[in-house]
Amino acid sequence: MELTEEQAAVRDVVREFAREEIEPTALEADRDQRFPEDVWDGLADLDLTGLTVPEAYGGYDADPVTAAVVNEEVAAGMLAVATALSVHSLATSCIAEFGSEDQRERWLPEMAAGRPVGAFALSEPHAGSNPAEMSTEASRDGDKYVIDGEKQWITNGERAGVYVLFAKTDRDDPDSVTQFLVPGDADGLTVGEKEDKLGLRASDTTSLTFDDVRIPAENRLTEEGKGLSAAFHILTGGRIAIAAQSVGLARRALEEAMAYSQERDQFGGPIADIQTIRHKLAEMATRTRAARLLTRDAAQKRAAGDAALEASMAKYFASEAAMFVTNEAVQIHGGYGYVTESEVERLYRDAKITEIYEGTTEIQKTVIARELLD
User: Fold this and answer.
1) d(Cα 119, Cα 154) in Å, to the nearest integer?
2) Phi–psi pair at 146, nearest 5 degrees
3) Catalytic residue among 124, 224, 320, 358
4) CA–CA distances in Å: residue 206 to residues 150, 180, 181, 209, 322
5) Number of structural domains, the chain?
6) Is 295 in the same domain as 166?
7) Which of 39, 43, 250, 310 is within CB 3.0–4.6 Å of 325 for a Cys-Cys bond?
């Protein structure tokens, strides 16, 4: 699946940025659990923080294939940065697609320039894979909505200046989920401590608590009760982004393993001459390419319309490919792959989250089966 000249040029620019600006910060950012803000500013300079913002509001307005290319390249540098970017892009997508003209003009130009950072507040402590069970409520009170509840696993939770929030207008009505915009400085909004995670450690993943948070009624993005369908629509693009990030992780791990196998001498020569290692690399390369093709096919389908089936297939396959390839990369490195100064050790830890967030592998299989059979 060939890229256009423009898409190939974007790939080359972002790949160079990832190698020169992102990769050198990755080990330290992971160790210190600190997001590299200078890298974020660099992404903004490349117009990538406006990836899903229409040109009319100062954005890049990338087509889905270009967006997938960007996500792959950024993730090859550091998944935590790619995740922050894709979640920011989810937020800008929601505002661009469902917001009023006033809301677009208020938020999108600044978000396209990189700040405020956006977050996507859907999951809750007791409502992850089934968001219809959420308990956060936004009750109408005159010309305002009053929000009470808690969100969990929020990427950019600490850094965000605006949250796209999903809440029920009636806690007892599962069909009342609605989408809102909540500024980061709203009274009554508390950001929890950063989670101490297996991987993705440079990303600020937090809880959010809403205690009598009052926002103007015009901060409602969707009609009441239309928020969940809007979330699923936007998450189709998000799943393609995660698939692309998984490809980036797998490709980087494959590159590291290939280089190491040609440098490491055992039994009188480089281990790349050993058939067992050669077969590992062959399977790693095949799964990585297959994942990329599934991802770009889903992106092309998304550009033409709905791609729920293809997006779930891509995320399911690519995330499992990332886990397989990073695991094999650690194995090829042996003891050197198990220590924290190794790139493949970090890639292996980071890869696991791709099978979990924005819909677990099990949810992707459920979506695929539903699209095939129902």
Assistant:
1) 7
2) -110, 120
3) 358
4) 11, 19, 18, 10, 25
5) 3
6) no
7) 250
Most distant pair of Cα atoms in the chain: their distance: 80
| 328-345 as b/e: b if 16+ CB within 10 A | bbbebbeeebeeeebbbb
CB 242 within 8 A of CB 350: no
Coil, strand or helix at 222: coil
Domain-ending residue, one of 79, 99, 116:
116
Q: How confident is the model at residue 20 (pLDDT cuts 50, 70, 90)?
A: very high
* 85, 126: one domain: no
Task: Note down the domain range covering 207.
Answer: 119-225
pTM passes above 0.85: yes
Helices (H), ranges, the chain: 5-17, 23-32, 37-45, 64-77, 79-98, 101-112, 227-263, 275-304, 308-333, 343-351, 361-373
> Are residues 221 and 252 both part of a single domain?
no
In this predicted structure, the answer to whether residue 128 has a pLDDT above a threshold of 90 is: no
- Overall average pLDDT of the 292-298 stretch: 98
Question: Has 362 been annotated as catalytic?
Answer: no
